[in-house]
């Protein structure tokens, strides 16, 4: 993997633009690739008795709806998570540097690195979710209604806007924040800490390791971080699916959450957890693999 002849200076506009592009490349394709798994997960979150397993879900969908329907929500996923990846990865790099140099002194920043990671990732995700939310709303409606709410993402956007206006795109923003912000805080902070721990145990310093070796560390750290992400954010993920599919007209977010929780209970918040652990663990590891591979390709250091 060769580096570019052009040297990108850290923390410049060019650097942040590269990180934004890396986030798009890392998140859009990976989330889109697991659309069939996400489809079954979302439907099981809404109705845990719908399928006996992932395989049973795919067989049932192919038998009743056709093979192409296992990719229901692909377009909304690709667009939404590309935008989210741009905001999440680019924003994280920006706010990590901003908080370390403009909010804290260098001494405090080096002492409280965990706090910097948590604050930077939370801020970045807050912004990223504003871009993601309209497409997440379309995706969930497509995946949890039979026949699907719409045939494609653009038809879905038009349909929601014509009937509900802009608020229709953001009725799930609060549970999305509750799902994604803790998820991203765990994702980035645990990744940084896990990767640091791995490098500390290895006999060769990171500076002397090849790019391939460093990327292998990123992949391992990403998968372990992904497992933690899935567990922390799963209850909110269930509520996002339920609220987007079952919230009544005129019902407040709080009332909808209370009503749904009374029906599903605490155990219901964990429907589909094992599927999500596999999905998020795989997603997170490949996202870090792609993101850091991209950074190495353009001459930037790997994360961590």
Automatic annotation (TrEMBL):
<protein>
    <recommendedName>
        <fullName>Mitochondrial phosphate carrier protein</fullName>
    </recommendedName>
</protein>
<feature type="repeat" description="Solcar">
    <location>
        <begin position="213"/>
        <end position="297"/>
    </location>
</feature>
<dbReference type="GO" id="GO:0005375">
    <property type="term" value="F:copper ion transmembrane transporter activity"/>
</dbReference>
<dbReference type="InterPro" id="IPR018108">
    <property type="entry name" value="MCP_transmembrane"/>
</dbReference>
<keyword id="KW-1133">Transmembrane helix</keyword>
<feature type="transmembrane region" description="Helical">
    <location>
        <begin position="268"/>
        <end position="291"/>
    </location>
</feature>
<keyword id="KW-0999">Mitochondrion inner membrane</keyword>
<keyword id="KW-0677">Repeat</keyword>
<keyword id="KW-0813">Transport</keyword>
<comment type="function">
    <text>Transport of phosphate groups from the cytosol to the mitochondrial matrix.</text>
</comment>
<feature type="repeat" description="Solcar">
    <location>
        <begin position="14"/>
        <end position="98"/>
    </location>
</feature>
<feature type="repeat" description="Solcar">
    <location>
        <begin position="112"/>
        <end position="197"/>
    </location>
</feature>
<keyword id="KW-0812">Transmembrane</keyword>
<comment type="similarity">
    <text>Belongs to the mitochondrial carrier (TC 2.A.29) family.</text>
</comment>
<dbReference type="GO" id="GO:0005315">
    <property type="term" value="F:phosphate transmembrane transporter activity"/>
</dbReference>
<keyword id="KW-0472">Membrane</keyword>
<keyword id="KW-0496">Mitochondrion</keyword>
<dbReference type="InterPro" id="IPR044677">
    <property type="entry name" value="SLC25A3/Pic2/Mir1-like"/>
</dbReference>
<dbReference type="GO" id="GO:0005743">
    <property type="term" value="C:mitochondrial inner membrane"/>
</dbReference>
<dbReference type="GO" id="GO:0006878">
    <property type="term" value="P:intracellular copper ion homeostasis"/>
</dbReference>
<dbReference type="InterPro" id="IPR023395">
    <property type="entry name" value="MCP_dom_sf"/>
</dbReference>
<dbReference type="Pfam" id="PF00153">
    <property type="entry name" value="Mito_carr"/>
</dbReference>
<dbReference type="GO" id="GO:1990547">
    <property type="term" value="P:mitochondrial phosphate ion transmembrane transport"/>
</dbReference>
């Amino acid at each position: 993997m060769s580096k570019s002849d052009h040297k990108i200076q850290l923390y410049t506009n060019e650097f942040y633009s590269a990180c934004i592009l890396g986030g798009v490349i890392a998140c859009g394709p990976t989330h889109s690739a697991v659309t069939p798994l996400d489809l079954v997960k979302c439907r099981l979150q809404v109705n845990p008795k719908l399928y006996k397993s992932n395989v049973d879900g795919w067989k049932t969908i192919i038998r009743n709806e056709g093979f192409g329907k296992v990719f229901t929500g692909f377009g909304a996923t690709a667009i939404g998570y590309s935008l989210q990846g741009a905001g999440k990865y680019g924003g994280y790099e920006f706010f990590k540097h901003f908080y370390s140099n403009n909010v804290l002194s260098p001494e405090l920043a080096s002492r409280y690195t965990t706090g910097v990671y948590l604050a930077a990732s939370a801020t970045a995700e807050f912004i990223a979710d504003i871009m993601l939310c309209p497409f997440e709303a379309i995706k969930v409606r497509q995946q949890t209604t039979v026949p699907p709410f719409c045939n494609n993402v653009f038809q879905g956007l038009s349909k929601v806007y014509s009937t509900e206006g802009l608020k229709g795109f953001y009725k799930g923003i609060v549970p999305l924040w509750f799902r994604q912000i803790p998820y991203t805080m765990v994702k980035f902070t645990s990744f940084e800490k896990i990767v640091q721990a791995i490098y500390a145990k290895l006999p060769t310093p990171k500076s002397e390791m090849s790019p391939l070796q460093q990327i292998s560390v990123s992949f391992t750290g990403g998968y372990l971080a992904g497992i933690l992400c899935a567990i922390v954010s799963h209850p909110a993920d269930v509520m996002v699916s339920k609220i987007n599919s079952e919230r009544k007209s005129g019902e407040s977010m709080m009332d909808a959450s209370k009503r749904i929780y009374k029906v599903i209970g605490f155990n219901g918040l964990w429907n589909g957890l094992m599927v999500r652990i596999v999905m998020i663990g795989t997603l997170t590891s490949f996202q870090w693999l792609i993101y850091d591979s991209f950074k190495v390709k353009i001459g930037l250091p790997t994360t961590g």
